[in-house]
Amino acid sequence: MTRLVLVALVFMDAAGLNAAELQTLDKSNYDLLVPDGKEVDAIHGDFVLQNDKIIAVIGAPGPERDANLTVHNVGGGVIDLTERDTQSDQLSCFYPGGGGFKFKKRIDWPAEWGKPADGAATIAFEGEATAKNQKGLVHRVGYELRDGETFVRVVSTLKNDGEESVKAPLRDGWRLDGEFKFGAIEGIDLVWGHDLFWRQAYGVQSEEGVTLRTLEMQEPRRPRQFEYGVAGRDESGTLAAGDSVTWRRCLIPAADSLAVQATAYAMRDEDLATGKLTVTDGVDPVANALVTVRQDNQVVGYLLTDAQGGAVSQAPAGEYAVTISAEGHGSMTHEGSLEANPDEIDAEWTVPLKRAGYAEATITDGAGRAIPVKVQFTGLDGAKSPDFGPESAERGVKNVQYTPDGRFRCKLAPGRYKWVASYGPEHDAAYGEITVEAGETATIAAKLPRTVDTTGWLSSELHSHSSPSGDNTASQAGRVLNLLDEHLEFCPCTEHQRIDVYDQHLAAFDAQHRMLTCPGMELTGQPLPLNHQNAFPLKHHVHEQDGGGPQTDPNPVTQIKRLAEWDDKSEKLVQSNHPNTAQMVGDRDLNGEPDEGFEAMFGYMDVQEIHPPELIFDPLGERGDPNSGVGNGGWDNRGNAIQNWLQLLNLGYRVTGVVNTDAHYNFHGSGWMRNWVRSSTDDPAEASVMELVHEFEHGHVVVSNGPFMSVTARSAAQDRRALPGDDLRTKDGKATLRIVVRCPNWMEINRVQLFINGRPDPEHNYTVRSHGDWFGRGTEVFDREIEVELEEDAHLVVACCGEGRSIGPMYGVPEGKTEWGRGMPVAVANPVFVDTNGDVDGDGVVFEPNGDDLGLPLPRLEGRRPSHGHDHPNHHHTH
């Protein structure tokens, strides 16, 4: 019978570290002490416990010590943990007490815990229960790291300092978010979690005699809870006044779940067998093969092969079934047994998988220069589409290869595949098919010419996220690569609840010249979705709490004011994210009755998200219709954002409309919405953040999910042409608009529509069917001047779309992405404000909005005038 093979890491001692130590992080040692990993959240003032095997970061106690948006109250908790030689921190937080305590201060090691081992490093904290029904319950927690040990020893004492008995369950919790697999081994009181792709596992094991079980009350973005049982303790978990209880456990990091288990078995003095596995394709070793180990048809754990296709591990003697699988190689299952032999390897397997093939690509621009590119692979004739990695990954994400320079080599199972290479909507895409043979390399060579002329405009994304935001686990490097591969040229960093930067990733990709960026943030408060605002540029305070950003406030007006005035009222762009416009303008409680709303927010914002842009072609419905488009009626109970924006324009508000992806993961996360913003240079390396801030403030913006459109307006009364966002004077209400639409070869536009004061004008509805000779078939889709004659002041909004067409295939719709925002190609220009008669009523306001409610009014107090935008140099609001 073939014998079982399992995996383990061989560790090497860290040079120069002879004993465990405790250090406090500051500017002088941060880069030397903090481990690597996607989920690192350490800041100055936190504590590092380290020895020659592992590194642990413990949050400093404090009233506002949060790791990120959703991982709160981390003082006294372990926030980063990994092995020294395979650093890949994926721990958000280990919460002693399960997150129900606020640790307020560091304390001396209590005598009742006993003297720490010689050479050990220790730290201890004291905190109080946060629940009202646990008043007087005090939690002391200590961490001990001994020289040479691969785990942190944790000890806790709960004491009731109150005057009445309290329920005091013995609990811990952890935040292991994303693609973690979880398991438990009751016989050794172990719970574990394992992120396969990022090669990091964790375990918690209680001391012998203390039981450990996982609770079922798991909630998203809350600590996964587990509970301990101490012999002789009241089953109700009640702690009488003055009483206390102490328990101990170990927190174990390792590269895989079987290594965690091996450490836990060793702690129980269990005899273990050692197995060695080598996976090949008959010729070459197979790296990153997933090994799934089962016993009695239950998954025991997982591991991955190393670069040489090898894996070594330890496990108790017994019968096992092992399934080995690898992308492009298929899978194979073996059954075997292990017998304990502590002196040598008990079992050695060499397992041959099927040979994979390869795709090797070189993609350039039209002139043969290297460019960032994404390439999608779709299986044909029964071949499965590949799965290179999870949505949190960087270069291989689901069926897509992302590359900063147009070059990559990837494994594919033998078969036929369609491929699509793209670099955003200014470049044509390339298409092809390859046949992949086992052991052979299929080559892909293509040029993506820049066919769409966008001179004078840069494409921008103002709202993106990655793992530092705390509500997702996507690699931030992967987010930046997404942005680069979609040819986005201005992208401030806007993580939730912290000021952050993209600089280090652009440097790693050698792409500083391709994308302009700056520090920024999204201040993310309640109520949702209204109380979310972005701002940039901001001052980044490196490795400080929230990157030096402000705190939230439950009043959206207070919060946006705080953000707008941050950094000593420095000049910045303030963006209102995915707002419910009705709630903001005049329906605070969303009951349909007008009130003061949060209207004062308009006094601090410069731009407002209005996506998805295609809804400009969907008129508002009837009052009471669940999809009316106002208040709770409409997408995600937020109304129809772009129609509501048109209503605001009619009421006299002037706030620039923008669209953004709000991307949180890396599978086609970026690129499918963008803003074309006016720029004095077409080179991102030469562009100015503050110039672009001013252009956004002025409304020199066209929003789009792909098509490029430019709109200018002129009249006999004004020498200067007007751009979107500008005012245009006329003598007789006559204006001339020039509309230019350009598209790459993977997009089609067949309609251009003028909206006058928010309503589509039937006289200016141009389609391929009605005006076929006005539309081109190549890149130059539409280039016409149209005459407009107005009887009153009006804002003119031009939109174009591809009815019956979709951008979805370029953005993952067939592979699992939704159609939302990835359907009909569309672009919408910000309004040109046309004055027909000057300041006729002498109130100092030249442009007079007409007040049209578009058939379904926004709730609004009668007589309320729009709040004025906050002051900036170069602002030119006219009300």
From TrEMBL:
<dbReference type="InterPro" id="IPR008969">
    <property type="entry name" value="CarboxyPept-like_regulatory"/>
</dbReference>
<dbReference type="InterPro" id="IPR016195">
    <property type="entry name" value="Pol/histidinol_Pase-like"/>
</dbReference>
<feature type="region of interest" description="Disordered">
    <location>
        <begin position="849"/>
        <end position="879"/>
    </location>
</feature>
<keyword id="KW-0732">Signal</keyword>
<feature type="compositionally biased region" description="Basic and acidic residues">
    <location>
        <begin position="861"/>
        <end position="872"/>
    </location>
</feature>
<protein>
    <recommendedName>
        <fullName>Carboxypeptidase regulatory-like domain-containing protein</fullName>
    </recommendedName>
</protein>
<feature type="compositionally biased region" description="Low complexity">
    <location>
        <begin position="849"/>
        <end position="860"/>
    </location>
</feature>
<feature type="signal peptide">
    <location>
        <begin position="1"/>
        <end position="19"/>
    </location>
</feature>
